[in-house]
Specification:
The chain is an alpha/beta fold. The protein has two domains: about 110 residues, Rossmann fold; about 50 residues, no CATH class. Helix content is about 45%, strand content about 15%. The protein has six helices and seven strands. Strands 3-4-5 form a three-stranded parallel sheet. Helix 2 packs across helix 5. About 5% of the residues are buried.
Length: about 180
């Protein structure tokens, strides 16, 4: 159970478990859907609305001209859904990362901002990142007020930099090693 301010939180909405950092993608369906919702709201509440209407007018004129140019009796649907246009244009997050830590931080940032996830659980992340990269992740999460939980299959060499640190053994006994 996870709670915040005496309110029980839905684990699916507040936690994100990362087992394989290499397979992370900022272009997964749930993130793109939230991006499209965000962009749709931006279009409908800003100066983009006029431009959006112009684009749909041009598309409609093109469809009418195209239908008139052929010998068949054709019809079209005047679909003015912003999300359909965004998907048609294949708007998505750029995934040009120079390092694994850059990819992880960008994923955490986008998931936090779009899905409002506040806690990330990393499984065996110390097998993929060095101490400097872990410090970079810690610093980013600290500044963004994002909580992280590391679940490791071995005790880290530099256990002093991980506070609090605990070992849970086979008998589910908790041993506090951060002292």
């Amino acid at each position: 159970m996870v709670a915040e301010d005496d309110e029980v939180l839905n684990l699916k909405e507040t936690l994100c478990c990362i087992i394989d950092p290499f397979s992370l993608s900022v272009n997964e369906k749930r993130l793109l859907n939230r991006l499209y919702d965000y962009m749709k709201n931006e279009i409908q509440s800003s100066e983009f609305l006029v431009e959006n209407n112009k684009v749909y007018s041009i598309i409609e004129q093109f469809a009418i001209h195209l239908i008139q140019a052929v010998d068949w009796n054709l019809d079209y649907t005047n679909k003015t859904d912003v999300v359909s246009l965004l998907k048609f244009m294949d708007i998505h997050f750029a995934e040009h990362f120079e390092s694994l830590i850059e990819k992880i931080i960008e994923y955490v940032r986008i998931v936090n901002e779009l899905l409002h996830v506040k806690c990330f659980i990393f499984v065996n992340i110390l097998s993929y990142l060095n101490e400097m990269e872990m410090n970079e992740l810690f610093k980013f999460c600290h500044y963004q007020k994002i909580y992280i939980l590391l679940i490791e299959n071995r005790q880290p060499i530099n256990v002093q930099s991980f506070k609090p640190a605990m070992i849970i053994d086979e008998d589910c006994c908790i041993i506090d090693i951060s002292v």
